[in-house]
Amino acid sequence: MKTPQSNRRVVVTGLGAVTPLGLSASATWEALAAGRSGIGPITRFDASACPVQIAGEVKGFDPGAALVKPLRPFGDERPEITQIFNGKDVKKFGRFTHLGVAAAIEAYGDAGLDTNRDQVDADRMGVNLGVGIGGLPEIEATQDTWREQGFRKISPFFIIQIAPNLLAGQVSLLLNLRGPNMAIASACATSGHTLGEAAEAIARGQADVMVAGGAESTVTPLAVGAFARMRALSTRNDDPAGASRPYDANRDGFVLSEGAVVFVLEEREHAMARGARIYAEVAGYGASADAFHLSSLSPGGEGSQRAMRAALASAEMVPEEIDMVSAHATSTPGGDGEEAAAIAGVFAGNLGGLNVTGVKSMTGHLLGAAGAMGAFAAVKGIEQGVVSPTINLQDLDPAVEATGLNVTPNTAVKKPVRGALANSFGFGGTNASLVFRAV
User: 104, 195, 279, 321: which sits with the fewest CB atoms below 10 Å from its CB?
Assistant: First the structure.
């Protein structure tokens, strides 16, 4: 990615993930490439009274677990971090912060920044981490506490638990990132925007390194109940693994999930100078508004098309240079078709060479982390030469079939991926598209 005022290019040097598919980036990618679902019965609360009883939960996660690799965010000036959180810290932060910090620390270690941190200027390292809803589990629990036990039982850490920017703040504190410190909340486009805006900060010279992505943890009675009342969620309680089925004619809604996905973005020359591994280049970013409806895509995905075209223009690439689209594809009856029409419109001259993947068929919908999850599939697709599949496709929607898109049904495809585009859209009519390129 470059700005008109700068030739600074932005690359991906670190990845971290804590998702329903696994507790690391490698485990998450292995499941994606294999076409495994992370959806199951809800265990975080008793959902028996709700028509929706399935979700994508992060299983086996311990926020106080020791790190696999000690990190040195302060060089030799301060002790190593040996735990993500100690026992007291676990109580101070909400679950979305627990998940996000774990993914951020993995990405930081994956980028190798701890091995030569003395040569990296902390003032030139920043963070942009977002959440779509925030600390809903803690809000619900604290309301119950006040009602049942009174004011004095409210945790003094409640505001820290729920504030949307506290994930970014905690990562900045733990990893000594003293550059830009921001948090974006744009519904399900949140982490598409955090990645794009972080890349822009590097391209315009405001930072050399940015830790960017998103987190979410709202598998709660209120969220599940509210989305169920909207009739937005799948009710395939007897078939959790098959419930999320983008592009299938029998899809009946999305599956609510939790998790975090975080990238380390870095100025290309800066990364090369320290010998960093580069996964891919962040070549372009586009953002748009539908200005049509608060919860539905504009007809034909017109606003989505503008975001994709803007991202391609920013990358100075043409549709024929894109081999893969990581679609937003939530498994909702309306949205999938409109996005398919939008993709087909943008890539009309390249349908034969394009594979589209809907990762939410495996992960469910991570809300504020969904954009980064889709971008993760795009970046790993470039690095590994593998397009992850859209699973649970038994009966392709005729309207989607008519677009001519290859939605990569059920089995991953091995192919060189020179360029990949990742979409994320959110309530309020907000859209983000990112273009990644092989280096």
Answer: 321
CA distances for 367 relative to 70, 319, 328, 358, angstroms: 31, 27, 11, 14
Strand bridging mode 355-357 / 125-131: unpaired
* Residue 438 in tokens: 């092989």
- Considering 98, 188, 193, 270, which one is annotated as catalytic? 188
Radius of gyration of the chain (CA): 20
- Tell me how crowded residue 245 is: count the other CB atoms within 10 A of its CB: 29
3-state secondary structure 237-273: CCCHHHCCCCCECCCCCECEECEEEEEEEEEHHHHHH
Which residue shows structure tokens 């959902």? 47
Structural domains of the chain sorted by starting position, each given as residue range(s) with its CATH number in brackets: 10-280 (3.40.47.10), 285-437 (3.40.47.10)
Q: Report the distance separating Cα 37 and Cα 234, nearest Å.
A: 15
Looking at the chain, how many residues does it have?
439
- Nearest of 198, 167, 162 to residue 100 by alpha carbon: 167
Using CA atoms, how far apart are residues 150 and 133, in angstroms rounded to an integer?
Answer: 26
> What residues have CB less than 8 Å from 307, skipping those under 6 apart?
286, 287, 288, 423, 431, 432, 433
pTM score, whole prediction: 0.95
Q: What is the rounded CA–CA span in Å between residue 341 and residue 295?
A: 18
CA 427/CA 194 separation, integer angstroms? 16
What sign for the dihedral angle of Cα 244, 246, 251, 254?
A: positive
Q: Exactly one of 98, 193, 270, 328 is catalytic; name it.
A: 328
Of 107, 97, 130, which Cα lies nearest the Cα of 28? 107
Q: Is 293 among the catalytic positions?
A: no
Q: Which residue has the higher pLDDT, 175 or 74?
A: 175
Residue among 98, 193, 270, 365 flagged as catalytic: 365
**How much is the pLDDT for 196?**
98
With CA atoms as reference, report the closest residue to 73 among 105, 110, 25.
105
Q: Residue 297, exposed/middle/buried by CB under 10 A (0-12, 13-18, 19+)?
A: buried
Query: What pLDDT, in 10s, does the model give residues 193-212?
Result: 999 999 999 999 999 999 99
